[in-house]
Design a protein that fits this description.
With about 180 residues, this protein is an alpha/beta fold. The protein has helices at about 1-10, 35-45, 65-80, 85-95, 135-150, 165-170, 175-185, and strands at about 20, 55, 100-105, 105, 110-115, 120-125, 155-160. The strands form three sheets. Strands 5-6-7 form a three-stranded mixed sheet. Strands 1-2 form a two-stranded parallel sheet.
Amino acid sequence: EQDARIAGLIHERGRPFVIVVNKWDAIEKDHKSAKKFKDALFDVFKFCRYAPVLFVSALTGKRCPQVLKKAKEIYESSQKRISTSELNKIFERLIAKYPPPVYRGEPIKLYFVTQVSVAPPTFILFVNYPDKLNFSYERYLRNGIRKTYPYEGVHLRVIFRKRTKKQKGIDRTVYSKQLTYHQRR
């Protein structure tokens, strides 16, 4: 419970992290042991499936040097920035594959997306109804970013925001293909 609580705090604060399992030498194992243990581990740590898991033995020193190497890789990953044009291309593909829900007969439009910070990588999506996009669609978008850019060990924040009058002058829309689809219906 305490490990899950600590991992939850790390996740909420957006810090990159790695899960290290010690005393791996003390376990009787076969070729499926690591996978079984990872599955059991992620049953408890459901919120951080993005975190890599390393199996080490402090007694023998087996795989211990990998911990610092992986920590460095994850830190560098958390500092990665994606250009707005590349993000909009990614989201155009994601939306074409799985469009957002319809709210009161009107499609939810995603106008554009931008990355506003790193560590943790934070993405703001400008939409017409930000409160009507649910957690599962947010998770879908987050996982779509992860498939293109492997942010291993890093929690991605996705924030939905209503487009302001100032931004309405920008006529870029990631959503144009879906809009025409809904207009045909």
